[in-house]
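Per-residue structure
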Amino acid sequence: MNTLSSSLFKNTLLLLALTSCSFDSSNSVATDSGEGDVEADARSLDDSDAARRADAGSDDAGADAAQPVVPRILILDDGDSNATPALQIATYLEGAGFDATIGPHYEDYLDGDDDELDPVASDFAVIIWLEGTDFGEDISEAMDTSLVDFVNAGGTLARTEWAGWFIGPDASDDDLIDQLMPVISPNQDFAYGTTWNVVESAHPLANGISPVSQVDGAGFTTVTANAQATVVVESNNGIPLVSVQDFGLGKVVHINHDVTYSVETVHSEVLQVFANLPAL
């Protein structure tokens, strides 16, 4: 091979070597760039997740916000120290996951004595006013006004049998809260023991209640429902046993059962109705 050919051959080899290095270098850059894109995508996802957590306040705040709010329920006692219906109801409600508070005897609620110790109505979603052993007792004007405001503002108030019996066909002369009832008692008659028939099975108050059940021994009043009320449970004779009506932004429920006036243990159907109240 002459000198010129040898020189051309060497130059060709050098050119090929340079081209090969350039290709490898290009591949290296492309590979590094790809890894950078993956890392950038990961950082983008991390940033997005951080933004979502920031929107929730913090990790802990987000977890707290996801927790359901437990409705608070106040029970105004009716003075039965033997059968303790308030304790039976509170125990059942606590077992159902609610926050139940037993307040004072309803006659003493906001009566002017140590009112600062009485629970504030607006702190609760539901108030259960028992009127079994004691019924028809005078209440303070402050309690009357407080309960009316509570219902009008969106609270749910539940009252029991004797409230319906005590309020006659014309409640205009009674306390203001007595005018917020889904039923009236046209003749103030009553009886003991009846069959519960669910007539509005899709209603929240009917949840967990047997379509037909015998409720023996307990008193009930021969009430009639207002035109605006919804009757959820009735007797074989069509007497409303569980009824509800809207007043303002809230609701009043009448449970036509004398709690422990006639029986020592609150029937399971009644306990379940109490537990359904927060769903209204």
